[in-house]
């Protein structure tokens, strides 16, 4: 009897050890992902947690600076990063799950500007505040715009107010959250891009996990779960 019990425990431990698990890395980027009362929450976070639950896959979630989160997923097996813009340059670097959300790229300026730009053609000589390793910053730099990146996008509104930068390029959801409750001295000038957001996993993640999570997200779109979660993060 004791031998049978030990054998049963051995099989149970093996089953637990064999359960698939992915480690999710993210940044403070409301309303998609953010830290509140010691917990990582947000619309993208909740969608992924529900998808993992439906797919029967375990996960851990850690909030770190974006450059570190991106590097983990790029280099370490079993790691993923969100909410990640899926671009041509990044396509072959990761295995993709989603989309889980989307974002517009917006140029912001001071409300007191007498002749604000209305397109990218007007900002070639401007110093633009950006966020380190963010897709918007990477794109602007690749197209030879003058970008001054910082490690936290939350620093850019004050830099703009102090005229240390001429403009600020950010995603509409993030900028809206960062400017909430502040004076209306910073305003959106024009939209110059759009990307869908994904969970980007280390290349070589088991295909069955990718398929199961994408199927769970498809089901959530059909049954209204996406709309319900988004409504909680206006």
SSE arrangement:
Layout: H1 2-18, E1 21-26, E2 34-36, E3 39-41, H2 43-55, E4 58-63, H3 66-75, E5 79-85, E6 94-110, E7 127-131, H4 135-142, E8 146-150, H5 156-161, E9 167-171, H6 172-179, E10 186-202, H7 207-222, H8 225-231
Helix pairs in contact: 2-7
What does this structure look like?
- By secondary structure, the chain is an alpha/beta fold.
- It folds into two domains: 19-102 and 196-231, 3-Layer(aba) Sandwich (D-Maltodextrin-Binding Protein, domain 2); 103-194, Periplasmic binding protein-like II (D-Maltodextrin-Binding Protein, domain 2, 3-Layer(aba) Sandwich).
- 36% of the residues lie in helices and 32% in strands.
- The chain has helices spanning 2-18, 43-55, 66-75, 135-142, 156-161, 172-179, 207-222, 225-231; strands spanning 21-26, 34-36, 39-41, 58-63, 79-85, 94-110, 127-131, 146-150, 167-171, 186-202.
- The protein has an eight-stranded mixed beta sheet with strand order 4-1-5-10-6-9-7-8, with helices on both faces.
- Helix 2 crosses helix 7.
- The termini are far apart.
